[in-house]
Amino acid sequence: MIRLAIVGTNWITDQFIEAALKTQKYQLVGVYSRSLDKAREFAEKYGSLALYDDFDAFAKCSSIDAVYIASPNSLHAPQATKLLESGKHVICEKPLAANDTLAKKMYRTALDNEVVLFEAFMSPHTPNFKLLKQHSSKLGKLRKAFITYCQYSSRYPRYLAGEMPNTFNPKFANGSVMDIGYYCVGSAVELFGEPLSVKAHAQLLDSGVDGSGSIILGYDGFEVVLQHSKTSDSYLPSEIQGEEGALLMEMIATGKKLTKITQGSVGIDLTVKQDPNPMYYEALAFADQYAQNQIDEACMKRSLIVAKLLTEIRRQTGVKFPTDGE
Q1: Where exactly does CATH 3.40.50.720 map onto the chain?
Q2: Is the pTM of this model over 0.85?
Q3: In this model, does residue 7 exceed pLDDT 80?
Q4: How far apart are CA 73 and CA 167, in angstroms?
Q5: Domain 2-122+281-289 in CATH: superfamily?
Q6: What's the average model confidence in pLDDT over 124-135?
Q7: Collapsing DSSP states into helix, strand and coil, what is residue 194?
Q8: Which long-range contacts (CB under 8 A, 24 or more apart) does 231-235 make?
Q9: What percent of the chain has pLDDT over 90?
Q10: I need a surface site. Which of 33, 166, 237, 307 has the fewest CB within 10 A?
Q11: pLDDT on residue 263
């Protein structure tokens, strides 16, 4: 049983805890928050847990095996690094870090301390995404792909009203491509590997982060177009086109529905039943790496490529973070 503690007391933390406990491989033992009252309020629904507002003491606690980090993006690297140095295994929400230099440092720290660092990118672990990857090799020569995730942010009205929620604040290494746009970039890398070229455009908000954007990833013989936005909704599926057919996936982040269409066909539904909580599968994947006490090399490679691409995309679009100097 993995003795799990968490950093971050928001809805996504609740979702991961639900998924982790459902696997029956985890025991929730502690909560860290800068506010002890906030930690206590969050922990109430989970019974008796250890509460922490001192991060150094939290990192050194011997009754914790692994920590799930869901704090603002800019805090991922310093928090994960301290935990890894203290011998804790870490599940860190995507994006792993604010830039690729920090991501590389995090993995070096994990390897040096012989602990697991796992980026909580749920998509590749879901059954329907695995089917998407499997069937993409059966479309003949690939020619084009379109991956989309556009969702009007519930925090955008607050931003328009003059507030500065974290999701639109460069101080916290945020913005569209670092949030839901990550699913587009990460999915492309998982499916097709590292691209030969990248061209990015974005619509920047006055705060300095991107509200939406488009990216073209160039591969040998085909290209992948990515579309992401936190200021508008899209209802289009993602699509992979080959010379012998196409695959369509609704909500690629969670693998909602997968359809294969060949010339002259009406489409075949390839969707398999999944757990309603898509984080269930990443919780299982981390538990496997924890049991082996070994980082999955393919996951690490993908995370580092994505961190490199996100850094380059921001360079091209002019999105700068205070952490870029680190």
Answers
A1: 2-122+281-289
A2: yes
A3: yes
A4: 9
A5: NAD(P)-binding Rossmann-like Domain (3.40.50.720)
A6: 98
A7: coil
A8: 231/152, 231/153, 231/156, 231/176, 231/203, 232/150, 232/152, 233/150, 233/151, 233/152, 234/148, 234/149, 234/150, 234/151
A9: 96
A10: 166
A11: 83
